[in-house]
Structures are given as C-alpha cells and as structure tokens.
C-alpha cells in the first residue's frame, strides 16, 4: 500500500522544517513551522518530484497562484487536486 | 585623488546592436523582450527573454575566432570596439602598460557549457572540442579585449551575480583614481539565454512568464536578458590634454555586503550603500536627479529598493526620478549594470530620462516617481546607479554631468 498524499506531503514539510512528521499539524502555517521563502520553493520542488506533477507557483505573487499554501491542510488539498488533475495524462 | 571621466561607450543588447540604437529605444520606451529563440525552448516553463536577435557571429568574426569566443565574449568585443573607437584612443607604449580591462561577468561561457554538456551527457560522446576551457572561462572576455587592443595593465573579471558590472566599474574607477591605471576598459556582459541558463532560473520561481513590470503593483517577476556594454574610463587630465569628448564624470562608488541572506534583499544595506556612494562623491542627496534602479520586477526587490531610496535620500526621494530599464532589455545578470549605465549617461548628457515601461498599476509600496512608460526630458546633474545582487552584495555608482 503506497503512502497517502497526506503522509508524503507531511514528510516533505517535516524534513524541510527539521521536525518529526508527528509535530506537523494540519492547521500549521509554513511560518509556524519556520519555513522561509527558500524553504518553500524547495518544498514545492520536492512535491513535484515526489508526485511527478507540475505545481503552478510564482514566488512573486503567491496569492494569485492556484496553489494554496496558507496551511499544511491547504497544501495537501492542493497537491491532491493536482495529482488527480495531472495523473493519467 | 585623480578624477575619472567616460570617453567612450559601446553596447549590444536586446534594444540594439550599438549605443545610438539602444538610446533611441530607451527614449521611445521600446520593449526588447520577446519569445526566446533557443534550442529546446518548448521544454522551458519560461519562454521569454531580452534576446539579441538578428545577430550573425559569422559577419563579425572569423572561424578561428568563433572557435575561441563564446557568445558572451563576442558581445564584449563588439561593445568594446564601439567604445574604444568613440574614445579615439589607441594603446601603445606607456599608455598600453598603464591601461587595463575589468569586466563584470557572472555566468561566463554558459552556451559553451550547455553545448558541451549535451555532447557528453545527451549524445554520449567521449570527446569535446579542445578549446572548451579557454572559451568558457569567466575571464575570457577581459583577456580577449586586452589582446585585441593591446591593454597590458590591470586586467581581471569580477563575478558578483547581478552586481558584477557595477563592482567591475567601481574597480576601474578606483584603479584610475588612485593612479594605478590611466585608462580602464570596463563594463560587463552576459549570454545566459540557453536551455540550461534559463532552466536554472526557472527553479527559483521568481521569473515572469509574460513581462518585466518593475514597480507596477501587478509585477510578477524578472525576465532574463543578454548582451554587453563597455565603457572607456579615463583619467581626467589625460582626456582633457588630448581634447577628448567627455560623456560624463564618475564621481563616487560604494560596495557593501548584507551578510544576511543568500537571496533576499536588505533595505538597510541598500540604503547604506547609496549613502556611502553619495559620501564618496561628496554630494548631498539633493543633487541627485535620477537613480537607475536595480528594479528587477520581483515582489521583493522593488519594494525593498523603494524603501531604501526613501531612507537614503530622505524627503528628496519624492523629488527625483527613478526608473528600471530592465523592463526594456531584461536582466542581463552580470552585464546588467553596464547596459543600465547607458541610461545614466543619456540622462546626464542628453537630458533624457529613460522610462520604466510595462507600468500598469501604482503600488503604494513603490510610491516614487518611476517615470512610467514614457521618457522624460530633464536637466540632470548627478545620477546614481544601483545594483543589489543575490548573495547580498551591493554596489552603487555615482556620476556627474560633464
């Protein structure tokens, strides 16, 4: 049984934040977890590599992007959406 | 200390293949940014750039030269020929020994690297052309300028990312000012618009897919450019004695390090560098009529830079003009400060301030006179030219009307 999207995303974020996955809460923001702008683009890169998807994200206008990074739960939701949208193509 | 003046300038960039074409484009607010025409562009997420179009190296250089000259070296030599021709100088004897070259080059021979990595990795070949190393090395451009024009004094390359050219021109200024050189050929070049060069920038997610709109509220990132600009910096008495036309005087320079973050800019240190440049030039902020901004079109740079200008120039920040010509020629990385110095000399010599084009919506965090979209006539006495590089390395030049 493959890991769920949620578990994989949490593992990526935990690694970036240097935390145990158990310490990453669904309502945490990246700021809460101490992830800065470089950590964010590195996390997005890891997510793209892990799921073989392309994440639409421009650091100049994060609020304009379809990729919601407001919390861990939002990121997981966005990744699930992209996986569903981009798989099987 | 000796005074330093500019007696020649040359360029090739997305706006033109020489200075008159480039200045005309800047006056008219033309955009040199368009679809990239490079190999494998379909595999890039970012497909625009300020590319030099319609340029055929075979009309400028022979086969043996092309085997040794990467695109960044070709651009440098073309710009140097124009600049040195304008200066009217020829370098022999003692003048040759006391004249050198200092250039800003960040990437070096990126096209040479890209082509030869393809050869060994993609095509699986086990042999490359024998000149790969002398072609790609960062100092190749400075060395070829010294060879073509017989410049035997201090010659080297400065690589500080987006501040390379400003650092280089600062070194040229100081070498002449302290008497170590009589004439310095300076400026910078970059030719990073190849698959690997653009792909690397894509990774940072700071690039715009459509346009470079510095200071505009709807800006969405930077756009790469390519090309070169080269200047002849000359000791004032030397230039005067031979009756040379003086384009502008270089009066101050400052460089600092943020010592903080590898990519994020620092308002405090950007302001400190402008203040130090004005102090070095012995001028008050009220003298400054125009600032050529670093103005990359990223969210982070533009608001930080505007706040820094307000801090360094005080109330006068509201009375001066500041524009980013990157909106027209793109960001030439190591060569950018040199091409942008052309906008500075145009403001001083011709009384025309180049605009920030692509400006669509005011941003309250960039509430300065950014000369939106249309060039302006003004009598400008002193200009500053800003460069704030990745790595937190800042370099600001100050110039005065001749």
Overview of the structural elements:
Chain B: Belongs to the thiolase-like superfamily. Beta-ketoacyl-ACP synthases family. Chain B: It is found in: Cell inner membrane. Chain B: Keywords: Cell inner membrane, Cell membrane, Membrane, Nodulation, Transferase, Transmembrane, Transmembrane helix. Chain B: One of its GO terms (molecular function) is 3-oxoacyl-[acyl-carrier-protein] synthase activity. The complex is a heterodimer of chains A (89) and B (402). Chain A has a single domain, classed as Orthogonal Bundle (Non-ribosomal Peptide Synthetase Peptidyl Carrier Protein, Chain A). Chain A is built from three helices and no strands. Chain A has 89 residues and is mostly helical. With 402 residues, chain B is of the alpha/beta class. Chain B has a ten-stranded mixed sheet, with helices on both faces. In chain B, strands 2-3 form a two-stranded antiparallel sheet.
